[in-house]
Amino acid sequence: MAFPSNLLAFVLLSILPWTAQAALYTSSSQLPRSTYDYIIVGAGTAGNVIAARLTENPNCEVLVLEAGVSDEGVYAATVPLLAPSLSKSAYDWNYTIVAQPNLNGRTLPYPRGKLLGGTSSINYMVYTRGSADDFDRYAEVTGDPGWKWDNMGLYRSRHERFVPPTEGWDTTGVYNPLVHGTEGPLAVALPNSMDPLSQIVLGASKELHDEFFFNQDANSGNTLGIGFTQATNGGGRRSSSSTAYLHPNIHRPNLHVLTNAQVTRLVKTGSKKGRPLFGAIEFQSDRQASPVRVTANTEIILSAGSAGTPSILQLSGIGDKTDLALVGIDTIVDLPSVGKNLSDHLFTTISFKFNGPSYDDLLRNHEVFQSSLEEWENHKTGPLANTPTNQIGWFRLPSDHPIFDGTPDPSAGLRSAHYEIIFSNIFHSHAAQRPSVGNFTTFSVSLASPSSRGTVRLSSRDPWAAPLIDPNFLSTEFDRVALREGVKAALRFSQAPAWKDWIEGLWEGCANLNDDDEIDAYIRQASDIVYHPIGTASMTSEDAGWGVVNPDLKVKGVEGLRIVDASILPFIPSAHTQATVYMAAERAADIIRDSAEFKATVLQRDEL
Ligand SMILES: Cc1cc2nc3c(=O)[nH]c(=O)nc-3n(C[C@H](O)[C@H](O)[C@H](O)COP(=O)(O)OP(=O)(O)OC[C@H]3O[C@@H](n4cnc5c(N)ncnc54)[C@H](O)[C@@H]3O)c2cc1C
Ligand SMILES: *[C@@H]1O[C@H](CO)[C@@H](O)[C@H](O)[C@H]1NC(C)=O
Ligand SMILES: *[C@@H]1O[C@H](CO)[C@@H](O)[C@H](O)[C@H]1NC(C)=O
Ligand SMILES: *[C@@H]1O[C@H](CO)[C@@H](O)[C@H](O)[C@H]1NC(C)=O
Predict the structure, then answer these.
(1) Segments in the chain below pLDDT 70
(2) In angstroms, rounded to a whole number, what is the distance separating the alpha carbons of residues 447 and 460?
(3) 185 alpha carbon to ligand 2 midpoint, in Å?
(4) Strand partners of residue 529
(5) H/E element holding 480?
(6) What is the DSSP letter of 213?
């Protein structure tokens, strides 16, 4: 969602009152020591969960190294609908993916959060857990039944605090209270503010029930159907891993967090059990600064995300030896799966001229924006308390679709979608600017279970150089067919009688969607990334012959190193990825606290 530059300047310059905090350091000279039990790389979505859970034990000394800055005072990171303004800002790594042959050779911006909270501080907050089949597949691939949906119940509820919408509308029947946590740190809610589009979507869903049926709660294990969006904007403001896990615990004397610390490599400090031991980390505050070294007594946890984690591994000599040789790095551990099997969601937006209230004026008209901002400031209600979508639908291709003749189904199972449709009451297109007049509604069609796989590789041995990120979108026939079928489904949905008085026709930019060739051409020209990269440090069973970490998240062939972030997911969930990351991180924290390493160091100290 492109953000107008005049409003952008305004929101990015607004600063909240700043509060100094005890163990939040900004310079390595402030660090009281150079040795910790655990050192976590990246204060992002997963990293902060691990930091908070491990420091519940007052004897466990934890350091978190974060390349970005603090999220304190970052106003746009608190107002939900301002999320898009954080991309291409000072809080973004500003990566770009390599030219995509199946998208007319286009490159695309690739935002990743570069501040406390990581990408959970800049994302669009949609909260979707994936299906039971997604988790059952993780259990199958890893051989660890602990990852099964039925065994993850504790981790589904532990992170979550489901709260009522700030506008207090009646939520009976539009979510299932039984599948939600109420005591966790992360505030999740249904849309805070209702809009007329919701009623139209639900009306059309009733009329075309066979295909577009209602699902009371897509977070119950079965994602299929249309339902109300749940998001991490509980209470009308962004809840991130930083606001939920880090700041509430930053007073703990055993939790130290250092910002402006970009990890440049892990250091091999010896060997253990015949394997190389990685016991130290080097980081720099900027490219010119001399590297600073810190040591982990127990373990290093890499939580630098799907681009950052494989990059750090490769810079440290852990990766595919052919890839490493290309950039002149000596291989210490030949692990060919590092940076491979990158999988991401791609989406195509279809906008319609809409004869009803939309959020378009909000981004076009300074007075409308100001009054909405005042409403948000005073009550945490109104459009700015919302994400860009109040309803989402998840759908499968019919089982007799010809694509399945000879092509295996890449989805995890019958409760996982092939495509998703996101409904927004605003114009949204990667291919064009917002028209200067008129109201719009947009159906964004996303490929939920893609089979294309890409890579994250180093462009150079310089740790400050951006990696080569190649999602390799639409490189399989399945993906091209499924996205095309999703676009057709969205067009079918727009034909429901409920839309008759509201939709005045397609926006001119997508007027030519009359046959498969026209749809395919539009997909290549207009599709954009949904920013859900996973898989670049996949978890697999110990004897799998591929993968980067074992089911306990220890790096294969290495001692002293675990990975906890989106990169460990061996398949993309049929979902926006943050909830899956929170669940995986909560389980990872328990795995670490139950480990022999934790017992031998931290717990042994407890007993003294
Ligand atoms: C614009 C956008 C919108 C999104 N919207 C949604 C959504 O609506 N719903 C949803 O579920 N998901 C969404 N996502 C995806 C979701 O937010 C991510 O899947 C999730 O946050 C990833 O968590 P992570 O822990 O793997 O990585 P991150 O949260 O990115 O954490 C990685 C951290 O490591 C730090 N780091 C990286 N390299 C280094 C280094 N060398 N040294 C030190 N620190 C380093 C980073 O700065 C960052 O803080 C969105 C993503 C984007 C970019
Ligand atoms: C990202 O790019 C924007 C301009 O496009 C710039 O203002 C910002 O500082 C950059 N972010 C970082 C972390 O360098
Ligand atoms: C990529 O994942 C597939 C399973 O989806 C696996 O068979 C293959 O070995 C993986 N490739 C690498 C290089 O890890
Ligand atoms: C367009 O949306 C605005 C709300 O932003 C609303 O006030 C206006 O009435 C809408 N126009 C139409 C034709 O419905």
Answers:
(1) 1-22, 606, 608
(2) 32
(3) 31
(4) 346
(5) helix 477-493
(6) -
Look at the block and give the residue holding tokens 């809080």. 91
| Single-letter residue type at 482 | A
DSSP state of 460: S
- Axis crossing angle, helix 366-379 with helix 5-13, rounded to the nearest 10: 30
Look at ligand 1, atom 20, and give the residue with the nearest C-alpha: 578
74 phi and psi, to 5 degrees? Answer: -85, 95
Looking from the CA of residue 362, the nearest atom of ligand 4 is 5
Q: Which two tokens stand for residue 367?
A: 């007075």
Nearest ligand 1 atom, CA 283: 42
Tell which one of 92, 95, 122 to mutate to probe ligand 2, the residue whose CB is within 8 A of the most ligand atoms. Answer: 92
Report the catalytic residues. 532, 576
Would you say the CB of residue 90 lies under 6 angstroms from ligand 2?
A: yes
31-57 core/surface letters (b: 16 or more CB in 10 A; e: else):
beeeebbbbbbbbbbbbbbbbbbbbeb
Q: Which ligand is nearest to the CA of 48?
A: 1
From CA 414, how far away is CA 397, in angstroms rounded? 10
CB count, 10 Å around CB of 295?
A: 16
Residue 172 tokens read as: 């009976």
The pLDDT, as a whole number, for residue 20 is 43
**Residue 511 pLDDT:** 81
Can you give the pLDDT at residue 608?
A: 62
Backbone angles phi, psi at 120, to 5 degrees: -70, -10
Tokens of residue 252, six digits:
């703990």
- Backbone conformation region of residue 387, classed left if phi is above 0, alpha if psi is from -120 to 50, else beta: beta
Q: Kindly state the DSSP code that residue 116 receives in the 8-state scheme.
A: T
Closest by Cα among 303, 372, 284, 261 to 584: 303
Which phi and psi angles does 87 have, rounded to 5°? -75, 145
Q: Give residue 308 CA to ligand 2 midpoint distance, Å.
A: 17
Indicate if ligand 4 lies below 6 Å from the C-beta of 438. Answer: no
Q: Give ligand 1 pocket residues (Cβ under 6 A).
A: 41-47, 65-68, 87, 111-114, 118-120, 122-126, 262-263, 303-306, 308, 312, 531-532, 565-566, 576-579, 581
250 contacts 24 by C-beta, under 8 angstroms: yes
Task: Kindly give the distance from the C-alpha atom of residue 532 to the centroid of ligand 1, in angstroms, as a whole number.
Answer: 9
pLDDT reported for residue 17: 46
**Residue 553 identity (one-letter amino acid):** L
**Angle 578-581-583 from CA coordinates, rounded to 5°:** 115
| Rounded distance from Cα 117 to ligand 1 centre (Å) | 8
**pLDDT value for 9:** 54
Q: DSSP strand E in 425-566: where?
A: 440-447, 455-457, 468-470, 503-506, 528-529, 561-563
Give CA torsion, residues 240, 242, 247, 252, to 10 deg.
130
Decide: 274 and 14 in contact? Cβ < 8 Å. no
**Amino acid identity at 465:** A
- Separation between Cα atoms, residue 312 and residue 61, nearest integer Å: 23
Ligand nearest to the CA of 408: 3
Instruction: Indicate the top mutation candidate among 200, 359, 361, 502 to test ligand 4's pocket, ranked by most ligand atoms within 8 A of CB.
Output: 361
How many Cα atoms within 13 Å fall on the side-chain side of residue 286?
3
> Residue 358 corresponds to which tokens in the numbers above?
């939309």
User: pTM higher than 0.85, yes or no?
Assistant: yes
Q: Whose CA is nearest to atom 5 of ligand 2?
A: 88
